[in-house]
Specification:
It contains six helices and 29 strands. It has 561 residues and is of the alpha+beta class. This is RHS repeat-associated core domain-containing protein.
C-alpha cells in the first residue's frame, strides 16, 4: 500500500495550500487493480470542504457542497459505482432542516437512490428528534425508533422493512460499549466487548492488537494485519495465509478506500459490497452494517457517512457556538480527524511531534543569506563532554533547520526526515548497537521537550489577575462574583491584600493544610494551559465540573488547571 499527501507541492493540478489543509492525496496497492487513485481538495474561507476531485478520472468525485449560515450541509454531489459503466451522479443530495434548528428534516436524492446515500423515503419529514436533540427516526433507513441512555447513546434501535430487526446496546457507567445484541429473523447474535477481546455468542471471535487483529483459524489463530493511512483509516487488510513471509494479492482480505467523511468506495479491487472483516475502519471507529444502518460508532456519538452528520448533538456544543451541533468534524475534512465524536482534532505532516508547521516554510526573519555553523562533537570523554555534546545536538538541530530552510525545504519535509532518523536510532538501540552519540541525541530531544512543555505551561498560566479584573466588570459574572472581586480590589488599594482571589473559594478549613477549592478560573476546554493558552476567555467554574470536562477532552487533569 502506497499513500502520498501533498500540502504545498501538489502534483495533479491542485492549489498549493499553506494553512495545514491537505491539497492532494494519492494511493495505490498491489491488489488486482494497481492503478494510482487520488483526490484534489478545495475548501472555503472557513476551511470547510467544498469538493474532492478524483484522479486520474472523476469516477469518485465529490462536488457541489454548500452550507447554510450555521454550517449545515445544503447540497452535496457524489459520483460512484452503480452496477453499470456509468459512475456519474450517484448522489445529488439536497438537505432540508426543521425550521430554526440544526435538525435534519429530509434529504432528497435526484441521483441514483439505490447507491451511496440510499433515498428510501419521499416523506416531507424523514427525521425526527427527542427533547435532547437525539435522532429518533430515519425514514430512509426504516429506523422507526431509537432509545437513548442518560449519556445520549443509543440503547435500542428498531428497524422495519427489508432489514427489519432490533439492535440493543449496553454500556459501562462512563459510556464504554460493553455489549451489542442483534435480533433479526428470529435469530439473536450477542457481541461482547472486553478490552481487546471481542466475543460473539460467548466464543472469542477476535483479539485486536496495534497492527491489526488475531482471529480463530480452526484449532489455531491467524494474525491479520492492517495498513492504515495518515488519519488512521484502515486501507488494506491482509494475512500471510501460507506462512511463506510473502504477501500476494490473493492474501489481501479487503481493500478499503473512502470518500471524505468515511463513505466507502465500491467498484474496484473486490470492494463491491460490505465484507465484515474489520471491526474498526474509518478513523479507527467501528462501522455498523447491521440492519442496513451503515453508521460509525464513536465514543460519544453515532455518525452517518452518507449524510456527513451525527445522530446526536455535540456534547461540547457550548465550546463551538459558531458551528452546527450535528456537523461531522466541523466540515473541515482536510485539517484533521474527528476526536471520538466530540470535536475536530487538527493534524498535519509536522504533528508527529506536536509541531504545527505543516507545509509552511521556515521563518527566517528576512535574514536569507546567513548560514549557521554547526557544533563539532567533544571527544574528550567524561560528564563535561557529554553535556557539551547534548547542548551541541540541540544547537545543530536549530542550525540544520535554518540552513535547510534557506534552501527551500519545508518543516514537514524536515519532520519526516527527522522521524526516519529517530526510527533508525531506535533500531540501533533496541538491537544493542546504540552508540554514545545516540544517547547524546536522545538526551537532547528529551531536554527540548521538557523545556518546550514547561514554557507552554508557564505561558498558559499567565494573565490570571488580568482575567479576574475583567470578570469583575463582566455582565456574564454573577452579582456575587462581581461583589467579591470588587471587595478584594478595595483591599488591594488599601494595602490589605496583594492579589484578587477566585470568587466563592472559602478560607482554609481548620485542621486542613490547604484551602478548600470549590471554584477555579478554568481554561476553555479547547484551549488548555498545557498548550500555551492563557486565561483569556476563561470562566469561574465549579472545580469538580471542570475536572470532568477536562477528562472528556482528554487533556491530563492537574489541580492547578
Amino acid at each position: 500500500f502506497n499513500f502520498t499527501i501533498n500540502y504545498n507541492k501538489p502534483q495533479n493540478g491542485a492549489t498549493p495550500l499553506f494553512n495545514g489543509n491537505i491539497s492532494e492525496t494519492s494511493w495505490n496497492t498491489l491488489n488486482t487493480d494497481t492503478s494510482t487513485r487520488g483526490y484534489s481538495y478545495k475548501y472555503d474561507a472557513l476551511n470547510r470542504i467544498l469538493s474532492a476531485t478524483g484522479t486520474p478520472n472523476t469516477n469518485y468525485n465529490v462536488s457541489g457542497i454548500t452550507y447554510d449560515k450555521n454550517g449545515n450541509i445544503i447540497t452535496l454531489n457524489r459520483n460512484g459505482w452503480q452496477n453499470s459503466s456509468s459512475y456519474a451522479d450517484m448522489d445529488i443530495l439536497s438537505y432540508e432542516y426543521h425550521q430554526n434548528t440544526n435538525q435534519l428534516k429530509n434529504v432528497n436524492d435526484t441521483g441514483n437512490a439505490n447507491y451511496g446515500f440510499k433515498d428510501g423515503s419521499e416523506l416531507a419529514t424523514e427525521y425526527t428528534y427527542d427533547a435532547n436533540g437525539n435522532t429518533l427516526t430515519d425514514a430512509n433507513k426504516n429506523v422507526t425508533s431509537v432509545e437513548y441512555n442518560h449519556l445520549n447513546m443509543p440503547t435500542k434501535i428498531t428497524v422495519t422493512g427489508a432489514n427489519a430487526g432490533v439492535l440493543q446496546y449496553k454500556y459501562s457507567a462512563d459510556g464504554v460499549k460493553l455489549r451489542k445484541i442483534k435480533t433479526q429473523g428470529g435469530t439473536s447474535t450477542t457481541t461482547d466487548y472486553n478490552g481487546n477481546y471481542v466475543y460473539e455468542n460467548g466464543d472469542l471471535k477476535q483479539i485486536t492488537q496495534p497492527e491489526g487483529y488475531i482471529e480463530p483459524n480452526g484449532s489455531s489463530w491467524q494474525y491479520v494485519y492492517r495498513y492504515t493511512d495518515f488519519w488512521g483509516n484502515t486501507r488494506l487488510t491482509y494475512a500471510d495465509d501460507n506462512g511463506d513471509g510473502i504477501i500476494t494479492s490473493t492474501e489481501i482480505r479487503r481493500e478499503q478506500n473512502y470518500y471524505p467523511g468515511g463513505l466507502e468506495h465500491v467498484g474496484y479491487n473486490g470492494a463491491l459490497r460490505g465484507v465484515k472483516n474489520n471491526l474498526k475502519t474509518y478513523q479507527k471507529q467501528e462501522f455498523t452494517e447491521d440492519l442496513g444502518l451503515n453508521t460509525h460508532e464513536w465514543r460519544y456519538r453515532v455518525s452517518d457517512p452518507a449524510t456527513l452528520r451525527f445522530w446526536q448533538v455535540d456534547p461540547l456544543a457550548e465550546d463551538y457556538t459558531y458551528n452546527s451541533t450535528y456537523a461531522f468534524q466541523e466540515n473541515k475534512l482536510g485539517m484533521g480527524i474527528e476526536l471520538e465524536g466530540l470535536e475536530l482534532y487538527p493534524i498535519n505532516g509536522a504533528d508527529m511531534f506536536n509541531y504545527s508547521g505543516g507545509g509552511k516554510p521556515v521563518l527566517t526573519f528576512g535574514l536569507h543569506n546567513i548560514v549557521l555553523p554547526t557544533a563539532e562533537r567533544n571527544t574528550n570523554g567524561g560528564a563535561g563532554a557529554f553535556v557539551d555534546n547534548v547542548l551541541g545536538n540541540i544547537w545543530n538541530g536549530i542550525a540544520t533547520s535554518w540552513n535547510e530552510g534557506m534552501q527551500g525545504k519545508t518543516l514537514t519535509e524536515m519532520t519526516v526526515e527527522g522521524v526516519r532518523g529517530m526510527e533508525e536510532m531506535a533500531d540501533r538501540v533496541t538491537s544493542g548497537e546504540g552508540s554514545i552519540q545516540d544517547v547524546e541525541a536522545a538526551a537532547a530531544m528529551i531536554l527540548v521537550r521538557k523545556v518546550k512543555g514547561k514554557s507552554l505551561s508557564a505561558k498558559g498560566r499567565s494573565g490570571k489577575q488580568a482575567r479576574l479584573r475583567e470578570w469583575m466588570n463582566d455582565d456574564k459574572a454573577s452579582s456575587a462574583d462581581r461583589g467579591w472581586l470588587k471587595n478584594d480590589q478595595r483591599h488591594i488599594q488599601t494595602g490589605n491584600k496583594k492579589a484578587l482571589r477566585i470568587p466563592r473559594n472559602g478560607r482554609k478549613s481548620p485542621g486542613r493544610k490547604k484551602q478548600d477549592k470549590g471554584y477555579e478560573l478554568a481554561h476553555k476546554n479547547n484551549a488548555p494551559a498545557s498548550q500555551g493558552h492563557g486565561y483569556k476567555g476563561s470562566l469561574v467554574k465549579n472545580h469538580a465540573e471542570h475536572k470532568v470536562e477536562t477528562r472528556i477532552h482528554k487533556h491530563r487533569y492537574k489541580k492547578k488547571d
